[in-house]
Amino acid sequence: MPNIKLLTLIAAGFLGQVAIAGGQEAGLNVPASVAEAVKKTDYASVRIKSYPVAVQCWSFRRFTFLETMDKVTGLGIKYLQAYPGQKLGGEFQGAAFNHHLAPGIRASLKKMLRAAGLSVIAYGVVDTGRTEPEMRKVFDFARDMGIRTIVCEPKDQDFPVIEKLVKEFNIRVAIHNHPAPSKYWSPATALKHIKNLDDRIGVCADTGHWMRENLRPVECLRLLEGRIIDVHLKDRSDFGKGQSAVDVAWGDGRAEMRTILAELTLQDYAGFLTIEYENEEKVMTPEPDIKKSLEFIRKTAYFEGYEQLLKRYGWNYEKHGWNHYGPGYFELDPKTGVLKSQGGMGLLWYAGKKFKDFVLELDYKCSSPDTNSGIFIRLPEFPRSDDYIYHSFEVQIYDTGQGIHKTGAIYDAEAPSLDAFKAAGEWSHMKITCQGKRIQVEINGRQSLDWEAAPRGKVKDFSLEGYIGLQNHDSLSPVYFRNVFIKEL
Question: By C-alpha distance, which of 430, 428, 454 is closest to 442?
C-alpha cells in the first residue's frame, strides 16, 4: 500500500512544525503559526455559547434505527445524524436506512420522526458515488427527507459535481476525517480541496479521530475556521491508536473539551454538536456517558438557558422579529451577525415579546470615543413616536459623557459608579439585570451600576415589563452590536 500519509502531507503543502500532544514533532498537518495563535488565545475568558446537540446513530449501531429513535428521545435529544446501513427494524424488516429506500418507506419514516419530535439533520458518512446520477440520488434523498447536510469523503475528481449539486439543492456537504489511511485524516488535506469552493462545502470535524492521529483538536479547528459545518464531538482517554485509548464522556478525557467549545464560540460556529460515542466496551449501554456529556455541556455553556434575540435562520443572521422606528437604520452582516448603526436618531427594537425580569447580555463596540448610543429596556408599547424615551430607561453608551450621561449610566437618571468600558475600536461586554425595580449594569465583568429605579430626569413613569431596543444615534460615529442574548428570570 502506498504511504498515504506522506502523499497527503505533501499535497497539503505545509512545511512547518506541528504542535501535537506531548510536544513538537516535524510534520505537515497544522502550521506552527496556527499552533502559536492557539497558544496566545485567552480561552478561559470566553463566554461559551449553547449549541444544539445531535446524536450520530452509529452510537447505537447494535440497535435498529427505530430503537435508536426511542433511545435518543429518552435522552431528551431532538436531532439525529443517520448513517447508511443501519437496520430500520419494526415493520421494515430487511430494510436499512440509506438513499435507496423506497418512497413509501421514506414517507412512513418521516411520519414516525414527526410524531416523535425528531429531525434527521445529517446523513453520513456516505459514499456518494463517482458519477453525477449516483451523487444526485444522494442529494434527492436528502432533500426528500429534509436532511440539510451530507457527510462524505469525496475523491479528488468528485468535487466539481458535488459543488454543482450543492448549489442546485442548497444542501451542505461536510468532509469527514477518518484516521489514516483515510484520505482526510489531516485537516490540511480537506482545507486544500475546499478552500476555493462554495462555502456550503466544508468539514465534519471529528475530534476523536484527530486524537487518534496525535493531533490537538483545538489546533485543527483553528486551521479550519470558517469551513466547519458539523462536529463529531468526542473526548478520549488518551491520544494515539493504542487499545488503552477509548471514547469517554465529555470532560473526562484529554481532548480539552472546554477549550474546544471556546474555540467554536470564537469562530461563531453555527452547526450541531454531534455525539458519536464509539467505546466498544459500552456499545450496548452508551446512555450513561451520553447523559454525562449532556450535563457537561449544560454546566460549561455560559449562555445555557438564554435566548439569542439576533440569530441565524438557516446559515445566515437575519433581523427576524426586529423592527425599526425613526430615522436611520442598522445594517446587519449576515455572516458575522454584527449590527452597524447608520444615521439616527432611531431605535431597533425586538418585537417578539415583552420581558419582565431578565438578564440581557450583548457585546458592543464604539467607532470613536464620541460614539453615542444606548440600550432601551422595558419599552411599554410599540414605539410610534419619540414619546417612548419618557416611559422607559436607557442604559447609556457615551464614553466622553459625564455623570448621568456616561457609558453605564441610566440616561438622565443615575450615574455609573466606575468606568469599565474598553477603548473605542474594542468590543466590550455589557450585562443588564432587571428584577422588579432594581437595575444592575456590568461592563466587562465589573459592576458599574446598581439602582432601585424611580421616575427621574426625562423619565416620567416606567413599566416593569416591556420591549428591548438598540439606539442608532447619528451618522458620525457608528455603534456596533453582536451576540444579543436574554434570559428571563
Answer: 430
